[in-house]
Structure formats: structure tokens, C-alpha cells
Amino acid sequence: MIASLDMYDLPEIREATDAWWVALARAFEAEGIVGVPSRRTRFAEESEAWSRPDLFFTQICGYPLRRFHSESLTVVGTPCYAAEGCTGPRYRSVVIVQRGAGIGSLGALRGQRLAYNNACSQSGVSAFRALLAEHGAGPGFFGDAIRSGGHRMSIALVASGEADTASIDCVTWALLRKHAPEECTEVEVLARTPDAPGLPYAVPAATDPAILAKMRRGLARAAADPDAAAARKALLIEDVALLCDHDYVEIEEIETRAAERGLHSLF
Q1: What CA–CA distance (Å, rounded) separates 228 from 124?
Q2: What is the rounded distance in angstroms from the CA atom of residue 231 to the CA atom of residue 234?
Q3: In Å, what is the CA distance from 251 to each residue of 27, 195, 254, 256?
Q4: What is the extent of the structural domain holding 72?
Q5: Same domain for 161 and 246
Q6: Which of 80, 82, 196, 236 is least enclosed by beta carbons within 10 angstroms?
Q7: Which residues contact 234 (CB under 8 A, 6 or more apart)?
Q8: Angle at 254 between CA 137 and CA 170, to 5 degrees
Q9: Does residue 152 share a domain with residue 25?
């Protein structure tokens, strides 16, 4: 069985992520769960873990969870991050532009070049679409779009001027400002998107309900574990909220509202 925690796995904090998994595994075992992986498995693409038949535990973006994995994965809880833009288990994205580029409003982004991490991203695409739809943007708003492959690269593209804007998960933004602040100096925040449920922890949908209950108790146990305090601080985790699948239906509703306002896509 494998466990993955790749969603916020910056190289600068991988030791903390490893330590957090050790704390989670210890807490799950304390609840009587057997077969808990002793260490987490890293993947080149975080999405690779989500369809694995030997999956034990993972973290996933809410958009692909609802779009592609709603029948195969179930939410066990959602970490709460100490990052600006987060409220409990909810989060936003920051819309960034190059510092000094003279872009002072969302309207000024019309015809500009967008950098986005992945088309199936709540923070990089769907949240930005929702914000622009609220402001009356229509199809063809951007002049061009570049798939960066990750929020960190999107920031680099905007900083260099290769792209004009990007929507960045506020947890990633906070982690980079803490652990690699030099990468954020050439960009600035233009706006913030509407909030949504944050990136949940998920397990296979076939998990026995009794085991699922033990895992939820284990999450609460790990969130209060003093031996994991340093890891949680490095990762900006301040608690874990016991959200469930129903809480993530909102992700679909966000996309639907943007479409109803005439903005089906950013590309």
C-alpha cells in the first residue's frame, strides 16, 4: 500500500512532509489501523497516485476529485492552513501580475497571456474563471495561455514577463514566500478569487466505514500531536477539519455558475 502527499511538496519542505506522514501513520496505528505505510511515496506527477489500486491515502485537488475521482475516492478530512486567504479548511487563489507592469485591474488583463498550472486545477483555472465571470468576462478574454505544469513555474513565467498573469493557490503562495521569497519579489497580487473547500485528504471509496472513522480520529490525533508540531509549522498546517464528500459538491457548483454567466473556459 502507498501513501502520497505530493500536492504542496516543495523541495524546501520535503523533510517536513515526510515527518508529517510519519505522524499521520503513527496516529492511524494508534487507532488500531493495520497495514499503514511506514513512509510516503513520491511521484513525478501527483495525479499518478489517485488511480493506483494499492492506494492507502493521498491528498488531491478538489476539482479532479469531483471531475474524475468522485466514485473511486472519498474525502477523509481537509487540512487547515495558516496562510493568508485561508479560513479554516477553505482557501482562495491570488491573481498575480509582474511587478511594475502597469496592470491595475482585472479588466486590464483582457487580451493578455495567462499562465496556468493545469487545466484540471481548482486554484489555477476554475477559481480564476469564477472571479472573471463575476466581473463580466466573456469567451476569449485572454489573448493566449501557457500551461506551466505547476504554480511555481507559473510564478516564474509571470516574473520573467513570458506571461502576464496567473492564479496561484494561496497555500503555495504562502509557502514560497516563507521558504523561497526571492521567487516572489518580481510579481505582485492583483486580486483574490472566491474561496472554496481546500485540498482534501482522500482514501479509496471502498474503505470500510469503520476504518474511515478510525482514520478521521487519527487525523485529529495527528493534528494535536506535539511531536509533529515542527512539521506542521513548516507546512503551515494548523488543524484538520473533518470535511466529507458532500462538502466538495461546491467545486462543481463554482464551475457551473461561471458557465451560466457565459464563461465556460479560460482558453
Answers
A1: 30
A2: 5
A3: 30, 10, 5, 9
A4: 2-83+198-253
A5: no
A6: 82
A7: 13, 16
A8: 85
A9: no
**Grid cell at residue 157:** 513565467
Which H or E element spans position 155?
helix 151-160
* CB of 139 closer than 8 Å to CB of 77: no
pLDDT tens readout for residues 155-214 = 999 999 999 999 999 999 999 999 999 999 999 999 999 999 999 999 999 999 999 999
From the list 169, 208, 153, the residue with the least C-alpha distance to 79 is 169
Domain shared by 242 and 230, yes or no: yes
How far apart are alpha carbons 251 and 25 in whole angstroms? Answer: 29
Report the C-alpha gap between 247 and 70 in whole angstroms.
12
DSSP 83: S
Q: Is 74 helix (H, G, I), strand (E, B) or coil?
A: strand
Beta bridge partner(s), residue 228? none
Cell of 112: 493578455
pLDDT tens, residue by residue, 134-150:
999 999 999 999 999 99
Q: For residue 149, how far is the Cα from the chain centroid?
A: 14
For 233, residues 6+ apart whose C-beta sits below 8 A from its C-beta are: none
Asked if 10 and 31 touch (Cβ cutoff 8 Å), the reply is: no
